[in-house]
Design a protein that fits this description.
single chain, about 80 residues, mainly beta, about 35% strand
């Protein structure tokens, strides 16, 4: 996949899934689209907010473990 296939996405842009998971784009060169790192997941007890919803911030290892449990097909 070439960057020209995703001209609107830049490195470190945030991408939000239907579930409200927030990823930071990591690179453009993946056969199925843009790769990203999970950064935030909706959590009522989370310390981050967008003004309407709270989020928990994950580091890389926590994010990988979370995805392995909740979306193993993405890992």
């Amino acid at each position: 996949m070439d960057i020209l296939d995703h001209p609107e996405v830049r490195l470190r842009d945030f991408i939000v899934t239907r579930e409200g998971w927030i990823f930071s784009s990591a690179d453009y060169y993946h056969p199925e689209g843009v790769r990203g790192v999970l950064r935030y997941v909706p959590d009522p007890e989370g310390e981050r907010t967008d003004g309407t919803r709270n989020y928990r911030k994950y580091d890389f290892d926590e994010a990988y473990d979370y995805m392995d449990i909740h979306k193993p097909e993405w890992v």
